[in-house]
Amino acid sequence: MGKPFSYNKKEKLKSRKVLEQLFNTGRSFTVFPLKILYLQPGEKRGFDIKTGVGVSARNFKKAVQRNYIKRLLREVYRTEKTPLYQFLLEREKHLAVFILYIDKALPAYATIKQKMPVALKRLINELNEAVTKNT
Questions:
Q1: What is the DSSP secondary structure assignment for residue 135, as one 8-state letter?
Q2: CA separation (Å) from 2 to 14, 48, 80?
Q3: Out of 37, 43, 59, 116, which residue is the most buried by the measure of CB atoms under 10 Å away?
Q4: In whole angstroms, what is the distance from residue 67 CA to residue 63 CA?
Q5: Poorest-confidence range of 50-59, 64-73, 124-133?
Q6: What is the pTM (predicted TM-score) of this model?
């Protein structure tokens, strides 16, 4: 897992192939204002989990605003990811996740800080259900 509260280069989702596969065949759910897309790739990609964040240029015309929201999402994910990592380590699984901000208003830190654990808990539940269906 590395350091518990880090978000280093190895954890970032950068592969075009995986991103394309994630958006085409991945599963998703919404915990407003976050939309979580996830995919369990066939082979391990160097880390237990690869994560990316995004914001719509349609809703936020200025790059400064988009970058602010992405920094906010990465920071909150970095501090709240531990339960997801523990779940994946216990089951020896790996995962690709993309977090989209879908609201049209600039978020407050408190709002994202409140919603991110809810979204990650739901992701754990959906992964757990997928595991129990397959066995």
A1: -
A2: 19, 10, 15
A3: 116
A4: 6
A5: 124-133
A6: 0.89
